[in-house]
Write a sequence for this structure.
């Protein structure tokens, strides 16, 4: 499993979340299997998304898609996001 981690500031979390949710079927087409949305404890408009993806190639295709750029514009993303790609080294639950 791989992870695509995205961090960005949004104008309004609720508006951004609607745009994010509207992209679920497109994320699935690119190999998404899940995600976690995090809000900064002091600033609810600073958002981090940890996406679980089957492979990094699908994540990179999604990241470069016009559909994603359009959704980010609709959702009020401010500035360029910070994007990181990771491969699972260990996953453990307690």
């Amino acid at each position: 499993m791989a992870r695509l981690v995205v961090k960005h500031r949004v104008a309004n979390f609720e508006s951004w979340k609607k745009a994010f949710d509207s992209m679920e079927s497109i994320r699935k087409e690119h190999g998404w299997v899940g995600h976690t949305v995090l809000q900064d404890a002091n600033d609810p408009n600073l958002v981090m998304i940890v996406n679980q993806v089957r492979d990094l190639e699908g994540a990179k295709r999604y990241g470069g898609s016009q559909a994603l750029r359009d959704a980010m514009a609709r959702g009020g993303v401010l500035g360029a996001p910070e994007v990181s790609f990771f491969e699972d080294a260990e996953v453990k639950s307690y």
User: Anything to note?
Assistant: The first strand starts at residue 2 and ends at 10. The chain is about 35% helix and 40% strand. The chain has a mean pLDDT of 94. The two ends are 19 Å apart (CA to CA).
